[in-house]
Amino acid sequence: MKQYYVYILASKKNGTLCICVTNDLNRRVYEHREGIIDGFTKKYNVKLLVYYEVHNDINEAIKREKALKKWYRKWKVELIEKSNPEWKDLYEELL
User: Fold this and answer.
1) 39: left (phi over 0), alpha (psi -120 to 50) or beta
2) What is the CATH number of domain 4-94?
3) Are residues 46 and 18 in contact, defined by beta-carbon separation less than 8 angstroms?
4) Fewer CB near the last or first residue (10 Å), C or N of the chain?
């Protein structure tokens, strides 16, 4: 079964946040970390994986991504800190 990921990257603890969706979390976070993709994450050095969710339906994942992007920053920070209070880079755990 195909899986999709909604994830949040940060520049540092309480830093700049970016919310994205992908079907290959390892590859996509690697691309962000290495600066392979031009854009927001490269410009603002946003490369720490601090939160992610797994979805089985692409439409649900996209719907969740869009909803999270509309959230107040305070809510996003609370979501991250609920499962990752230290803002650890979760990328290493994926490998």
Assistant:
1) left
2) 3.40.1440.10
3) yes
4) N
